[in-house]
Amino acid sequence: MSDHILRVEGLKTVFKTFSGDINAVDDVAFSLARNETLGIVGESGCGKSVTARSIMKLVEFENGRIDAGSVEYMPTPDELIDLTALDHKSAEIRAIRGGQISMIFQEPMASFNPVFPIGKQMAEVLVHHLGLSKLEARDRAIEMLNRVKIPNAAQRFDEYPHEFSGGMRQRAMIAMAISCNPKLLIADEPTTALDVTVEAQILELLNELEAEHSMTTIMITHDMAVIAEMTDNVMVMYAGRIAEYSSASALFANPLHPYTQALLKSIPRIGSKEELYSIEGSVPSLLDLPKGCYFAPRCPFAMEHCHTQAPPTFEPEPGHRVRCWLYGEPGDEVRAAPLTASEEVAGT
Amino acid sequence: MWAYIVRRLIYLIPMVLLISIVAFIVIELPPGDIFTNEELQLRRNGNPNAARIVEARREIYGLNEPVISRYFIWMGRIVFDWDFGISVLSQREVTEILRERLPTTLLITALSIIFTWVVAIPIGIYSAVKKYTVFDYSTTFVAFLGMAIPNFLLALILMLFAFNTLGWGIGGLMSQEFIGQPMSMAKFLDMAQHLVIPVIVVAMSSMAGLVRVLRGMVLDEMGKLYVLTARAKGMPERVVIWKHILKIAMIPVISTIGWILPALISGETITAIVMNLPTIGQVFLRSLQAQDSYVSGALILILSTLTIIGSLISDILLAVVDKRVVYS
Amino acid sequence: MAETNTILRVQGLKKYFPIQRGVFRRTVGHVHAVDDVSFELTKGETLGIVGESGCGKTTLGRCIPRLVEPTDGEITFSGDSVGGELRVQSADKERIADLRRRVQMIFQDPMASLDPRMTIFEIVSEPLRYNADLTQTEQRDRAASLLEKTGIRSDYMDRYPHQFSGGQRQRIGIARALILEPEVLICDEAVSALDVSVQAQIIKMFKQLQEELSLSYLFIAHDLSVVEHVSHRIMVMYLGKIAEMAESDALFDRPRHPYTESLLYSIPSADPSLKGKKRRVLAGDVPNPADPPSGCYFHTRCPYAQEICKTTAPPLKEVAEGHHSACHFADTLPLKGYQQIISERRSEPAHE
């Protein structure tokens, strides 16, 4: 069995609101091999962002709690830490956050504190995790800014977020996230708010860094094109559950879940003048989820029992998992902890 | 940044001039002057020379000149001689009165401001972090109480409590036996005891406001993305709150910080009267009631100018803390 | 104008914003948000306007119904409705009302563009109250039929915006825009804030409505795939000027401006075989619109820039039929089309 850095099992995250409890993430399970890039794709409310924040134990700060499941983090093949067992304010998890597992966010303007210079915010991480002195931290931060190709890095170190352009802010964010050489980088919609040429630059930068630093990455996005270009394996989420999981090539070549199929058909592709397929209805509110399969009300292939029984996970092809009654009967489901899709196919 | 400051300073001059005119008008508005009462008295006593006596007095104080020239004479003396005039009531120079009363006023106000900040800021932050808990609700309750209860009433209640239950001496700056005595440890402690209630009372109402403002700001900021980033970087909660959030949460406080300046001078008038404390506020009230125009005019002018300067200081501090301001 | 079926003509449109500096706030320069833009819109056509931050497309969109006062230029409407030609600049109050009836805007943020204190009926019928003389019942009927047309059940008419999803709110915004039977719709990033599946629904609806109601669209967006899908012609803008304007197919098959080519290179495509392959990326950032480069604005980032590009701004010329480009070398540069770029990328080495 090849080397895994993260294994998530039966993850269930709930948020407490005035209107009741929301099941933002429901029974999510996946593995992440070292150096792999996993994509998590889905539309608003599907739980992709919450999954990432659950891994980092950040949901507890927002009235959330992990109700069930485990998140096993293996910094080296010999160590294993169960992140769900750590208290969200403990020193152990804080040593991991930023130092070993880093996260970058969607809105670079909002993700930096507007009243502190960017350099200071970058130095903060270095001092905290690597114990560098202020001067050493400054040097290293400037080095990182250079690495992400920000011109005049030394001058930029003292500047404020609003003095940077959107693309540069995102680069600075990336620089800050990798400055402590994390083993895992979680990118939450890193290019959604950026212009297309800037997006291309950032994706290119991420590719380079992943190759250079042997970094494992989780790429969260709603854009299937980004998934195609950046990821090895993909997890499609819908209303908090995983609908489908496979390698990226298998997903595009042979999407199994009706939701995935519909999603791929509704993306405009250049050169194709076909009508865009539009799925009827809209994503259900998390406060009012349907019984059975969440997608059934909108599914063109829905059968009787789809509306009453939630489908378990089936694996019709090695490494390609689907939560849909089209692919199995009760009793066929896969129970064991999942290997990654590439391993399944390789038969390791 | 400098252009911003210079521009504000330039606006200052016409503003102060305008204020001086308005202050003067305010003083002159009520009919009659400081001698009106005296004249009435003299007449009642049957004095046939009432009018002449009073006219002579008016001559001395220059109250017979036409309004416009009185304005210029008044402003001229202030600007060139630093002479704010004379209090007819007490026959002393205004500057002397201010000098006498300033230390006490400053002491009480400064202490209460420090007290307010030291107590209100942590409470505000804590009630935001632990929102909807008993702590939050109880501090909110006390805060509203403090805002609703008039200061003088609170002063009276506390004085009663201190006298009956704690056996403290109350009223005035110090107990009878120490008046006129040189400073000693005993006198110092006695004064400190006398200051406790005034400081608490003056602090009470502004403290309540500060707690609520800070609580609101911290709650707003806690949901923001940069806070999530800071946590995702592994920063401990205390750094997230006391470094990242606090700086931004203080922005509304900083933008009104300048108004401490006039408050330092005027003190809290009604409380001071109730507690018999020798502050400038008392003098101000009396001068308005008696139409002691040099005193009231001077005070209005000083306080308004300090308010403007205070606003300028606030704005500059704001630009230092939040660089985005300069760019808009 | 009537013969050529042109419904909107824009000539030499300019919008400059003053920059004020120093102690006395003197105007030291201008931001050329829209800098000499001219184009025509035919009845029933969709003209897509693309460009990145700072290119001026949003400002351009707002100048047309005079939500923003242009600094210079002419905007002329024609149509078979009463009044014939309508010059935007000189329109007085009455004619402005007429103008605003004929051209409507749909905005990007479905959350922010509906007044949360008004019911859906009130929002959709509000234009009727000020522009038409209908009874309450007639208003309700009109509103109901438009809501149904845009896919919202009319029995939801008395609900409030927060009770609807983003996609539904956008539909409500569209119903509001359509209630006065406009001829031109300006869609300012109308689908950018929506989920992919909802986006598909709204795009489909736009196309249907265009056919049914003979609408002409100015479709402002930054997502090239979406723009290609809905537009007949596309206009590419950079720093306030038009870089290229052509029929949609022609633009993607054979662009005639290096910036367009860079945009084509930057589009991520849903093709996993391209994963990890190196790609040609446009370097640098968009220059500050308050301080644009000399000569051709794009020369600082253009891979083909020559001496003349630094000194002389290229005029917008017709280089092929219906295909305009503002580049000195539009005729001669071997710029690649989208399909070519994809095949090229397939044969590139991957990152290692």
List descriptors:
heterotrimer, A: 348 residues, alpha/beta, eight-stranded mixed beta sheet, four-stranded antiparallel beta sheet, globular, B: mainly alpha, MetI-like fold, two-stranded antiparallel ribbon, 16 helices
Report on the structure:
The complex is a heterotrimer of chains A (348), B (328) and C (352). Chain A is α/β, with parallel strands linked by helices and 348 residues long. Chain A has a domain of 92 residues. In chain A, 31% of the residues lie in helices and 23% in strands. In chain A, the strands form two sheets. In chain A, strands 6-7-8-3-9-10-12-11 form an eight-stranded mixed beta sheet, with helices on both faces. In chain A, a hairpin with a 2-residue loop joins strand 1 and strand 2. The longest helix of chain A is centred in the middle third of the chain and has 18 residues. Chain A is globular. The model of chain A has no long low-confidence stretch (mean pLDDT 89). Chain B has one domain: MetI-like fold (Orthogonal Bundle), CATH 1.10.3720. Chain B is built from 16 helices and two strands. A two-stranded antiparallel ribbon of chain B has the order 1-2. With 352 residues, chain C is α/β, with parallel strands linked by helices. Chain C folds into two domains: 226 residues, P-loop containing nucleotide triphosphate hydrolases (Rossmann fold, 3-Layer(aba) Sandwich); 88 residues, no CATH class. Helices cover 31% and strands 23% of the residues of chain C. Chain C is built from eleven helices and twelve strands. In chain C, the strands form two sheets. In chain C, strands 6-7-8-3-9-10-12-11 form an eight-stranded mixed beta sheet, sandwiched between helices. A four-stranded antiparallel beta sheet of chain C has the order 2-1-4-5. In chain C, a hairpin with a 4-residue loop joins strand 1 and strand 2. The interface between A and B is medium-sized, with 33 and 23 residues.
